[in-house]
Design goal:
Radius of gyration: 22 Å
Helix content: 25-40%
Low-confidence stretches: none
Largest sheet: 8 strands, mixed
CATH architecture of the largest domain: 3-Layer(aba) Sandwich
Shape: globular
Number of domains: 2
CATH topology of the largest domain: Rossmann fold
Amino acid sequence: MKLEFEYGHGLMAADLPDNTDVFIPGETVADPPCLPQDWDSLYAATLESIRNPIGMKPLRELAGPGKTVVFVIPDIVKGGCQATSHRKVSIRACLDELYAAGVEKKDILLLFSNGLHPRATVSEMKQILGEELFNEFYWTNQITSHDSEDPEHMVDLGTTRRGDPVLMNKYVFDCDLPILIGHTQGNPYGGYSGGYKHCATGITHWRSIASHHVPDVMHRADFTPVSGKNLMRTKFDEIGMWMEEKMGHPFFCCDAVLDTYSRQIAVFSGYAKEMMPVSWEVADKRTYVPWAEKKYDVMVFGMPQAFHYGDGMGTNPIQMMQALSAQVIRHKRVMKDNCVIICSSLCNGYFHDERWPYLRELYDMFQHDYMNVLPDMNRYGEYFATNQEYIRKYRFANAFHPFHGFSMMSCGHIAEMNTAAIYIVGAQEPGIARGMGLKTRATFEEALADAKKKFVGPDPNILALPKTFKVGAVHLCMKDEPYDGTNGCGGCGC
């Protein structure tokens, strides 16, 4: 069977056994039907959701003359940027309701919830919002990005009852009506984006994020495979509800369930605590796919140079490990315990130092000082997160916050925990991959031959995942064990 997998800015061919199973999101198993994708239809569906929110009053009743409003908007990493994207349609629909209720344009702020991601560039603002919304608000200085290191625009809310620190954006805290524009799309961290995950990661400080994006949470048994009932998800919800308690009112959420190509399947609005379960029930039908009839010895996919975190994600070793682990988290239900991963990656030493100025230091440090496994980096989290040069680049030079790299290390260990071996094929600098504990071979065929000899035997069950980083991913399940909302623990992950 001849297949092609992502590799650098192109593809790499692979000749795999004819009995290889192939899964492509949205194709192998069709998504639930999306809403009609013309503007008028999507606007009408979104308006219907906004006017009939779950668990709280509609916008028109919450808004009024003199009320201040902050839209909290996902950054370039989330959702789509097409002309009819959820962000574009929902912001416009909400604005129309706000204006009708007497809210003045001067009292509205559009805030990108980038969290520890880079602040939005002007080009990204235009992509996300479209020319009309951009021009309506940019020239009056009513579009900005969250800056987790700006002390004048952060407020310390103390700790949750669990003891997790909560620091949040002051613009959001101070406004009368905070509106979360979110996406209910499959995410390896807590099941779904949107809802309380949006505010718990997008408008907080690294110390808040360090309460959940760390080994103590990510290496628990309830984290892999992905579910909506793990400790990380519980912490997201607790942090979001703590924000609401301290603000004295809830967020108004408008989340869209998205398909493989970021098209709206459904739109839900209202109080996150009550809205999320309703949204997830619909999203589960697209995201947790009961498809596999057997568990797999080998999982094969390709890694492009550029995907959701940006150019260089598929070539620098820290992000590579996170991306490998994300596939394990999503698909662990269909993997054997001794499963082997074979993945193409250019792995050419391109770290994208402007975007991730600290990753080269992080990688070099891992090669020394008794660093045997990725969790050994744990003691250096504070060092990276408080490095003033790295923080300056996050604030003013469109770089990721340095703690983001540390959270990637925490995630990256999950692939090692749950596989017998990981092969990188096609690496131009194979020593970089080997420095992360990965095996290297020139081709898919060579890697598979070695895996057969050492790990999986002569006739392994093979799962091929073309396009896995190019389209909205799913979480694969066994056909006879569909996802029931838990990882078998039945609890809340606490």
